[in-house]
Design goal:
Elements: H1 3-22, H2 33-48, H3 52-88, H4 94-125, H5 128-145
Helix pairs in contact: 1-4, 2-3, 3-4
Amino acid sequence: MKHPVRYSILAAIGILIVIVVSSCGYKYYHSSIDDKAQYISERITDKLDLKGEQNLRLAKLKEQVVLVVKEVRDSKQEYHKQVLALLGEKQFDSKQALQLLKEKSGNFDEKAEPIVYAFADFYNSLDSAQQQKLREKVAKHADSHWHKH
């Protein structure tokens, strides 16, 4: 995959995950990822007036995102240990650090693909009015939240 396309896809996936995770609000900060995902999917269903097949596609997207978030959380502890071990050495091993980053980005690429396909399937099932409403909601969220990150 060419770098600009790869970065665009990774950025889109990152944006989707940030929206899903951050749009829960403070009230849901301590909720489980399953509870947060359920809350968000209910809001999306209400805001976009989803019907039948669209709900199934949203559920598939939700399952993919929840699966990836759980996998990332589970692997985070080990990754932190590896980074701390690198910093604990007398000399920083740049080759080891680069290998660790390559592994991490490779894992991200693998996990991103099903989310992108599930999102495309969901988005393509929306009618033009629903797509427009979704674009407006994402743009509004971007204006109020992305500059803070």
